[in-house]
Amino acid sequence: MKSLIPPQLKFQxxxxxxxxxxxxxxxxxxxxxxxxxxxxxxVSLKTTTGELLFLSDPFLVKEVLTRNDGTIPRSRLQQRFxxxxxxxxxxxxxxxxxxxMHRKTLAPxxxxxxxxxxxxxxKMTLEEAIKPIFxxxxxxxxxxxxxxxxxGTFGVIWQILFGEDKKLTPPLIVEQMANTxxxxxxxxxxxxxxxxxxxxxxxxxxxxxxxPLVSDTPFAKNPKINLQLTNKELEDNAQFLLTSGHxxxxxxxxxxxxxLAHYQDEQELIANEIKNILGNKELTLDILHxxxxxxxxxxxTMRLYPSAILVNRETIQDVTxxxxxxxxxxQIAVCFYSMHRHKNYxxxxxxFNxxxxxxxxxxxxxxxxxxxxxxxxxxxxxxxxxxxxxxxxTILKDVKILSCKNSIKPIxxxxxxxxxxxxLEVQKRN
Length: 430
Ligand code: HEM
Hints:
By secondary structure, this protein is an alpha+beta fold. The chain has 2 domains: 1-86 and 312-346, no CATH class; 89-308 and 370-428, CATH 1.10.630.10. The protein is built from 18 helices and 13 strands. Residues 74, 91-92, 103, 106, 110, 157, 241, 245, 248-249, 252, 306-308, 311, 370-372, 376, 378-380, 383-384 line the site of protoporphyrin IX containing FE. Heme binds at residue 378. Its cofactor is heme. GO terms for molecular function: heme binding; iron ion binding; monooxygenase activity; oxidoreductase activity, acting on paired donors, with incorporation or reduction of molecular oxygen.
């Protein structure tokens, strides 16, 4: 394995960090995350809006995220920030009992029980989305792989919510939304993102007429527990799932392909695994479970580049977590990025080594949390796995990635994204 270290975020020593608000400190990681968080369990930062506690120790993090007494809820900052883009009455922005109700209603939609039903259209949607790669091969041009991934994963969520038997094609504004978000994200500027927020309002308007069409489907109600979402809640959940659900998955797949452009040996090993297991057969769900090297790539990509680098909680009274006494009103940044590269848990934390997932010890398993844990853990993690495994298999069986034409580094703005379009040079695989 080449020992080249893939690009990473560079943090500042605590003593050099300038005063700013807690929200800014969480969002602009390279300017405001203390580098000590990569070797300490927690670091406290005084901000202009109060105390911000960075956590990257898996035991402390688990205690915070699974606490049952309601003393460390999702923060109002995170709710407000997410609410700008996704509406205020959905699973990620509502609080307390309402949030639990959204979760109960949505959970069955993303349960692996449904994957047999979803798989044919997921496969079809992703096969359609990767066609531009073959056009690029033909024209001998590099391909902007992030855009391909966004179109694929956006199409999948659209199908799950509004497609299937309802046969609705996405209205233009929804397709434009994926592109606008993609471009706003590329620029990395929140001012640009606020342009995307304006578009988010438009998407919500365009979703409105569709909502009655899904009000009688599993998306809107959970008959087992007699729950029915209101139209506004449906609209806001659709908006959250369409925006965040596609973006986090697309980023993961983009990073995975970026890594393979640099690690040619690993790419060949994975392509051989696919050739041996899939051969000329039709891709099935079962086959996806028989690709351990590809699965390790998925995990190592999310360890190095977790698309959600943090989640935010706040204390509503004085609490004790492990040996930490935390004052009421403290903002807590649960930092998955630094947990995944923590020097106490990972050997050569910044190196790319998918094989490490063959021999994870219990501590490392605890320190790997790309989908969070506890009351608000990701509902779509298994769907993300299914999409990533399907598109990666479909691409790598026929396509060789020769290189990434431009230099890329990660930038952190709550999600972790490449700082420019990832332009891959590709050719047909023999
Ligand atoms: C690689 C892809 C993904 C990553 C890394 C990811 C990560 C996360 C994380 C870290 C959270 C926790 C938020 C918090 O604690 O405040 C979360 C929540 C959530 N995710 Fe994902 N996610 C991914 C894909 C998806 C997909 C594809 C869907 C569905 C379409 C989805 C649906 C959700 C939902 C509904 C929640 C909210 C759960 C709640 O608040 O109760 N995610 N995700």
